[in-house]
Specification:
The complex is a heterodimer of chains A (409) and B (254). With 409 residues, chain A is an alpha/beta fold. Chain A has ten helices and 22 strands. Chain A has two domains: 83 residues, Roll (Urease, subunit C, domain 1); 300 residues, Metal-dependent hydrolases (TIM Barrel, Alpha-Beta Barrel). The longest helix of chain A has 12 residues. Chain A is globular and about 65 Å long. In chain B, the strands form two sheets. Chain B has a five-stranded parallel beta sheet with strand order 1-7-6-3-2. Chain B has a two-stranded antiparallel ribbon with strand order 4-5. Chain B is globular. Chain B has one domain: Rossmann fold (3-Layer(aba) Sandwich), CATH 3.40.50.
């Protein structure tokens, strides 16, 4: 039956025979989509006297909001921290390939790099909607160079910097352009970090704590100035100590400003964090857990050597180390693998696992009114998954942008 | 009247559902030939627990009814009496109500036709009894001042015009009302009793609702269950009913 033409001409699609993730539960409900947004069928029925133009049988799939990856350094041979000539096509390639992992929005991440790299690369990253061409870009995540020498991990030491001299102006000079920067990771123990955090927060940029030797008080102070995220919890920070839990202590700190929540990224590939540690973090603060891949150029490629910014890294199975060392450097995990591993390791519900990759990152970035949920009027970016949480199809703005090959693997 | 007595709430609901299904299939609706199902109306539109939400979540979203074929009295209409009159016209235009399904209040009311309502009343604005307001308070966080004191309702006369009426009564708190409805006389203080004068009524209830009835009545109708259960046996599909109807079988009647 045609919809009421006086409201909208656009076709209405009704996805039936599915279980949708809504209000933190899997409910047996139909999903209605019009003009790239989730539609309220009750309003459609009573106010517009409309009904579906197309009905699609989802064969009892789970429908979840599309995954949002806020830390991904590259993949498929593309390294976001390398200022190549074909940088734009590199980002497009990654954006297109990660659709099959269920990622519908992402933050291309740059590791510590020389200032020239930022000046060349950042203007080429633009916030844009996803579609058949690839996942949407929410903005860049700049991990470094204002991080601690002692916890540099795989970041190149010669590019590390401080902002002692000019605080925010130093930061701005290093990066060049902050227009499409969504997240900045820094070490809060650095002098004048409070000013920088306040200034970044004022501009709507999410400040994350990471690659740092800060103690709990320094971390709490940073949160009070506006920091809201922790970059890959446990990795590149002081280990939890019972008399000074360090950054890890933020998960249960009582000095977080009222009404705010601290989120923390976890790379749940089974390598960066022991499952027992993953469980401790999850149980301490389940609502703050954000799954990230921290994937680097070698993700999706055969084992061997690849670059990560200024470094050379070696892939060996699921492990990625700086060539010749045992220092972890990024991962080759895919988002859907992380979701499955997270669910298995923590024994959490399917809903919680899916929300850690969709709702929580959206809440972190303050965009949950349009991404990360299947609520009425939010963007129709969603996935069809089977019961084992393997992605069967990816939809952006209500259109199918990827489907699992039935014949393929 | 057919009095159908089942063991409990779920069985009573299931029997009633199957009966309605069979009636629809037997009727064979199609374009222009509407099976008009009448239901009692409820709360105003704005509230999240509104009748519209209730009907959507419990009925409309599970079936393929066209929105144009759904007519709900609008408590927010600018001219309420005109809204009621228009509603009566719409019923006539659809060919009259084929089957009206309703419940019964503890005070014996059908739809919002509270005690004292005229037995020949039509769709109108009705003041609500205190009992009903108290019962509805649960939809308004227990705040009595927020509960509407008036409602639009189909009249007793409107329901009497339906070709068949089915009343669902479950629970011990409805037992006295059921007794008044079927074992006492026709009385406007117990408006459901009006259906004693309707040629085609079905009362579906559970054991608890029969607690105030004479043992003789209950035994009599339980004895008829063998015959009554034939009414809910699975029927053919609507397409096959087309061919069935040409070799017309008389439907069971009392």
């Amino acid at each position: 039956m045609p919809s009421n033409k006086s409201v909208s001409d656009a076709p209405i699609v009704q996805f039936t025979n599915c279980r949708i993730l809504r209000d933190h539960q899997l409910q047996r409900e139909d999903l209605w989509v019009r003009e790239g947004k989730i539609l309220n069928p009750e309003k459609l029925f009573f106010d517009e006297k409309g009904s579906a133009d197309v009905q699609l049988d989802c064969k009892d799939s789970i429908i979840a909001p599309g995954f949002i990856d806020v830390q991904i350094n590259g993949g498929f041979g593309v390294d976001f921290s390398l200022a190549t000539d074909d940088f734009k096509s590199g980002i497009d390639l990654v954006g297109q390939k990660i659709l099959s992992h269920g990622v519908t929005s992402f933050c291309p991440t740059l590791v510590t790099s020389p200032s020239s790299v930022y000046h060349q690369v950042l203007p080429q990253i633009s916030v844009r909607n996803g579609g058949a061409h690839g996942a949407g870009i929410l903005g860049a995540h700049l991990e470094g160079p204002f991080i601690s020498k002692e916890k540099k991990g795989a970041h190149p030491e010669h590019c590390l910097r401080t902002f002692e001299a000019g605080a925010f102006q130093d930061l701005l000079a290093t990066y060049g352009c902050l227009d499409c920067v969504q997240i900045v990771t820094l070490a809060p123990e650095m002098r004048r970090s409070s000013e920088v955090i306040r200034e970044l927060t004022k501009r709507g940029i999410c400040v994350s704590l990471g690659h740092s030797v800060a103690n709990l008080s320094q971390a709490e102070e940073a949160v009070q100035h506006g920091a809201t995220f922790i970059t890959h919890l446990f990795n590149a920070m002081l280990p939890f100590h019972h008399r000074d839990p360090g950054i890890v202590g933020l998960l249960t700190s009582d000095r977080i400003p009222a009404g705010r929540r601290v989120f923390y990224g976890m790379i749940s590939d089974g390598i960066h964090t022991n499952p027992a540690a993953l469980r401790i973090a999850h149980r301490a603060h389940p609502k703050g857990l954000v799954l990230v891949t921290d994937a680097m150029a070698g993700m999706g490629l055969a084992p061997g050597r690849h670059t990560l910014g200024q470094q050379v890294v070696e892939i060996d199975g699921l492990n990625t180390y700086i060539a010749g060392t045992k220092t972890l450097s990024g991962s080759v995990a895919t988002m859907d693998t992380c979701v499955r591993h997270f669910q298995e390791a923590t024994g959490c519900s399917v809903e919680a696992a899916l929300e850690a990759a969709s709702l929580h990152p959206a809440q972190l970035l303050g965009i949950e009114h349009k991404k990360g949920t299947l609520n009425y009027d939010s963007d129709a970016d969603f996935l069809m998954l089977n019961d084992s949480l393997y992605v069967q199809a990816t939809y952006i703005a209500g259109k199918e942008v990827w489907r699992q090959d039935v014949s393929g693997m | 009247m057919k009095l159908i007595i089942l063991d409990n709430y779920s069985q009573a609901s299931e029997w009633a559902a199957k009966y309605i299904r069979n009636r629809i299939v037997q009727f064979g609706p199609g374009p222009g030939r509407f099976f008009t199902l009448g239901l009692p109306t409820g709360l105003p539109r704005d509230h999240p627990e509104s009748y519209h939400s209730f009907m959507w979540n419990n009925f409309f979203k599970h079936i393929d009814i066209s929105p144009e074929n759904v007519h709900i009295l609008d408590g927010n209409a600018p001219d309420l009496q005109a809204e009621c009159d228009a509603f009566e016209e719409k019923i006539k235009a659809a060919g009259g109500i084929e089957l009206f399904v309703g419940g019964i209040g503890p005070d014996g009311h059908i739809a919002f036709n509270e005690p004292g309502s005229s037995l020949v009343s039509r769709t109108r604005v009705k003041t609500l009894a205190m009992d009903t307001i108290l019962a509805n308070a649960r939809f308004f966080d227990g705040d009595l001042s927020k509960v509407p004191t008036m409602a639009l309702t189909v009249g007793v006369g409107t329901v009497m015009d339906a070709r068949e009426v089915m009343i669902l009564i479950t629970g011990a708190h409805k037992a006295f009302a059921l007794y008044k409805a079927i074992e006492d006389g026709v009385n406007h203080m117990w408006t459901v009793s009006a259906f004693q004068q309707h040629p085609n009524t079905v009362f579906v209830c559970d054991e608890d609702a029969t607690l105030e009835l004479k043992v003789k009545t209950v035994k009599y109708f339980k004895g008829l269950m063998l015959v009554h259960n034939k009414l809910v046996e699975p029927l053919y599909s609507m397409k096959e009913m087309e061919t069935e109807r040409s070799q017309s079988k008389k439907p069971y009647s009392d």
